[in-house]
Each structure stands twice: as structure tokens, then as C-alpha cells.
Protein 1
Amino acid sequence: MPPFKTVYHVSWVDTDAAQVVHFSNYFRIFERAEEEMYTQLGLSFNEIQKKYNFWLPRVEAFCKFKAPAKFGDELEVYLTVEEIMEKAVKYAFTAKNKQSEQLVAEGYVVVVAADKEFGHAVSIPKELAQKLEVYKNP
């Protein structure tokens, strides 16, 4: 199946004084895509926390910047579930300028299922892993 795709409109708050997306904001953009992917799968972060009693904290993040994105740009953001491990998931992201199709950033984030009460890593339920398979890289 193709990766999950969403469009992100670069707003003023995303940019620095040169009206270029500040490097740290790519992680916010990637996280927004992750949230929208879960919504597409019929889930929300709140539902996941209530149903499975765990959080999904980030334990690793990487981003490579390829070209500047600017205030007013529309970015196509693609999310692929790169790997589903026993207690963690690795998401890969790419962001392209919608009009020019130029790659502006690519990266990944690793999230771990962490018990809400004790904070230790727990297994990802098979039901959740199966839903994520829809966007898994073949």
C-alpha cells in the first residue's frame, strides 16, 4: 500500500526571520502527519492511551534537510511505517513542496509503547500493530 499522505500549510509561526521553516518544526510537521494517520485508521492518541494504558513517547528522531520550505508553501508529507518491533514503531517521513515537488526534508521517528503508570516499555498490542501494517513499507 502507498504511504500515508497529508498536506501541511506552512504558517508564519513555523518560520524563522527569513521566513524559512525552522529546523525544529519539521518534527512538529511529522508528528501532525502521525496524528492524522491514526485518525485515518479510526484511532486517536487519547483512545490509544485509554484502551491500551500506554503513551507513545519519542525515543529517537532524525531529520535531513534538503531544501528550504517557506511561509505560505504547501508541503506534501508522506509517512511510512518502516518497522513494527515488539515494543516500538519506526515511522519514516518525507516532505515535498507540493508545487515544485522538490524534496525539502526526510527523516524518521521511533516511538515506544510506555506504560502510563510505571513508564516502562510494554508490548504493542497485535490489534494495533495490524492496523499500522496498512502503511508498512513492503
Protein 2
Amino acid sequence: MKRFGLVNTLMVATRVVASAAAMAQAQKKARQRLSPHETISTVVDGNRVMIVYGRPYTKKPGTEEARKIWGGLIPYDAVWRTGADEATLLVTEQPIVIGSLTLAPGSYTLFTYPTADGSAKLIVNKRIGQWGIPYDEKKEAANELGRVDLKKETLDQPVDQFTMAIERAPSGGGVISMMWETTKYSVPFSVKK
């Protein structure tokens, strides 16, 4: 059964990545990737969770000049694509619960909505293959599955390149984190049994 699950996950992931690559090629004339991309994957309580995202740097491309990230490059009170270039992709093999949202097995797009008071929300969207920004909230309302509060922490050391992580929680379930500059946002999730 586990082997079937892994094979199924790999098939879904391959289709998603191939689909994203095809869409990226189609958009290549209009848009060029400016940041490196990464795929992270972790098995949490028997469920593989994968995130594909762009990793922009604090410094402006081709310079040593640092940019202000929160409230600068990423404006407050506006939807951010949670990375660079294409919108961030989340793939889960089994149902997971993030906040009040239950996500069926499949692929989703993640966005972030940071505010000037330091709070932020994770937006889960069912439409995949989006470039990321601009994000038309009225148009995307039908595709949004919901918004979940993110926990904010201040990091001791600044992070120069946007970084996401999927970690197992000691008491079960997992945590999705994003770190940049001196800020870390995170949200716990559990695998629905």
C-alpha cells in the first residue's frame, strides 16, 4: 500500500512539474525567471508533502544593494506569491488539515498576505500554474479554498535568500515555514486519517 502511495505521489509530482514546466515555457517570451527554484519534500505521518517555489535574494539581482523585504519588495496589505516567479506549489499525497482548511490529495498554489501590523495569512488556492503576481482577489475568490493565520517569529540571524521548510512536529503532524530577512512565518498541519 505504501509503495502504491509513493508511486502515486511521484506520478502526480511528475505531472505537476511537467505541467508547470510547459506553462513556464509558454510564458517564457513574456516573463523570465529571475530567481533559483527549489523543490522540498518531507514525509509526515506517512504522507509526502512537497513544495516547489522560487527563492529570491535580499540583494537586488546583479548588485550588492540590499532591498527592504517586508513592507518594501513585499508590500503590506497585498497578496504575495510566496516566493519568486511562478506562484508556490504545494502537493500532498493524503488529505491534510491546515488551520480550518482540509485539503484533499492533490496540488495547490500558496500565496501570503502580510500586513503592516506584522500578522500574515497563508492563502490556499486550488488553481495551479499561475505566474504569481499580480493577484486579482476578486477574480481568484472562487479559486481560494481559504486563508489561515500564520505565526510570526523574529529570527536571531538574517536570512538572505527566501527559504521554505516542511518539518515534522515532535507531537505529530508537521509545520510549513517560510523565512526571509529576520522574519519567520509558520503554520502547523496534520495528516487527516
Protein 3
Amino acid sequence: MGPSAYLLAGPAVAGSLALGWSGLEKIRNRAPLEAAVTALGMPPASASVAAIVVPALELGTVAVLVAGLPAGLASALFGVLGVTFAFAGLRSLLTGRSIACACFGASQRKLGWPQLIALPLWLFAAWSALHLPSTTMTGRLAALACALVLGTALRAVSALRLGLEARRDRRAFAGGA
């Protein structure tokens, strides 16, 4: 596989990493997604269903790519998810509601422009999924393992940063008393 094949695969792999992380966070705690969907105007019963369906579609997209299922399916899933996220951001902007983003679990960020700006990136990942080079199951699993290591490292950096901030806060509080 040449360098251009890796470049073509990049957006789909990056999108899969984001969807994997996002889906797992939403499974871990469905409440932020349920609250966001309810705030967008869905009835609570439908919001509960959405809190199951959305992470299933996110993780399903990753599974489709890893399993080597038809590229059109992965592409369609990327597209549907991207449009869904953009619609949520647009709805939040149009209604003027300040709705907490549940993209990667509970967050202080708000729905709106970030989801609209990300739509072209999701569509680029959808296009990329159609142009993934043919690989073996071992190759796809190795790519998944690398993506998991990268995702874990990203998550560890944010957790370490929060820990350092908390430590500084404790020291500042103890020194000021």
C-alpha cells in the first residue's frame, strides 16, 4: 500500500477514532445525550431511544470498517451521522437554546457552529470510506489497535491535564489558608 492509499484512508480512520470514542462515552453515560435530545425538542421516550441508537450507529460504523463490509455502508453511516450532528447544531442555533453538547459524553461545550463546521469533515470521511484500500482482516485489526492506542493516549493527556490542574488548585487553596 503506497503513501497515497494511507492519505485516502486518513479521514475514515480519524472519523472512526472519533466515533469509537464518542460511542463508548455515550454508552458509559446516556444521560447527557438524552438531555441534549430532549432539549432539541424530542419527547423523553424518543430521547431514550435516540440515546441507544446514536451510539449504536457510531460504534456500528467502526465495526463496518473493521469487518471490511461494503464501503458504501460505512460511507452512508458517516454521512447520516454527520448530517444528524449538523442538524442538531443548526436546531440549537435556530431555536436560540443553549444546549450542552453530548458529543463525547457530558461537556461544557454547546451545540451549534462546531457541529455545522464539522459536517464537511464527516462527509470527507464518508468519501474516504469509499476509497479505502483493500486490506486483510489482520490489517484492519492492526489499524483498529493503532487507533485505540492513539485514542487512549489522547484521553490520557486530557485526564493528566485535569489532574495537574486539580493539584495546582489544591496547592493554591492550601497555601492561601
Protein 4
Amino acid sequence: MSTHGGFPRVYDPKKSRDWKQLVKQYVREAVKESSDEFPYEGPLRIWMKFVMPLPKSAHRKRKPPQEVWSIKKPDVDNLYKGIADAMEGIVYKNDSQISHLVIEKKTAAQGNEAKVMIEVTPAI
């Protein structure tokens, strides 16, 4: 957010736009087979797990290989918001439908890739 001529202006940086586009591609592919269920209506429960890349300096240090909680940037709220925005209109109509949210952020185990796992279910 910035101001121009005394008026607030909101913009989405290119890196953020590219991330949302990538997420949209994966989400569309994931829901393609069951498109009659989507977009969900009503309250939703969402679980997300972000497995961040292992820093190069940790490759020699961590034994045995395992995921550990990550306290490095980016913040979980920034990770979540990009995904929630990208799923809007595909998985659900509006992210205001999310009534229960669990987010985990870990660093990948040695030899494992970074990944994001998402589970969306109706809140009953």
C-alpha cells in the first residue's frame, strides 16, 4: 500500500502475482475432476502445511533427517493470504467463508523438497 497524490493506492507486487498464478494453476488442476462440488458454499475448514526449503547451510548439520518448525520468513499470514486469494472463485466463492483455519510451517527434511499441502472441507 502506498499513497499517490494524497490517495491510498494498493498494488500487488509481481512476485506475489506470479505466486498466485502458480497456485491457481495447481488448484484448478486439483479440482478439475470433481468440479460439480466447487466452488464450495457455506463455512469451511482449511488446513495448510508449508514445508519450506532446507537452507544450504543446514545440509551438513541436521541428522537424522526430519522436518522442524520454521521461524524464518516469510510469515505464515503472508503465505496463507496468497493461497487464500488464489483459491477464491475456484474452491470457494469468497475467503470470508473460512471459519476454521490451521496453518503449519516447517523446514524440509534433508533430501526432501519444499511443498504446500492444503485440505479444504465444509465446516459442520
